[in-house]
Design a protein that fits this description.
two-stranded parallel ribbon, Spore_germ_GerPE, Spore germination protein GerPE, 1 helix, mainly beta, single chain
Length: 123
């Protein structure tokens, strides 16, 4: 991995939540994992411990990543090995997301969300 220096004059981030990362500087490994159940009901009714992630295939299916088998040949010449940015403005970084300023070697991120709607029958 070619090394470059990152230079950011100013960064404004309002919110970083739910297994997300704001990384300034080089990193060898970043791993984020998030899972959520989003339940929508017509009436505001809340029950303690009403659902478990193991009930849903969304959270139990293995993540399949196809291997990268394409051979890519390229050459880069970095006359000035620096990335310069004046200003970064971000409202939110959420659900296994990443804002990284610097070099990375390995990044693995996963987010699984199950949306459930409980609606009344229109009888």
């Amino acid at each position: 991995m070619s090394k470059r220096t990152s230079s950011v004059d100013r960064i404004n981030v309002t919110s970083v939540t739910t297994a997300s990362t704001l990384e300034i500087g080089d990193s060898s490994q970043i791993q984020a994992f998030s899972r959520a159940l989003a339940v929508q009901r017509e009436h505001e009714i809340f029950y303690d411990h009403e659902m478990d992630f193991s009930q849903f295939d969304t959270f139990n299916e293995p993540l399949t990543l196809d291997p990268i088998i394409d051979e890519i040949a390229f050459e880069t010449i970095a006359l000035k090995p620096i990335i310069k940015v004046k200003h970064i403005e971000i409202i939110g970084i959420s659900t296994s997301s990443l804002l990284h300023i610097g070099n990375s070697r390995n990044i693995s991120m996963e987010s699984r969300i199950k949306h459930i709607r409980h609606l009344r029958d229109n009888d």
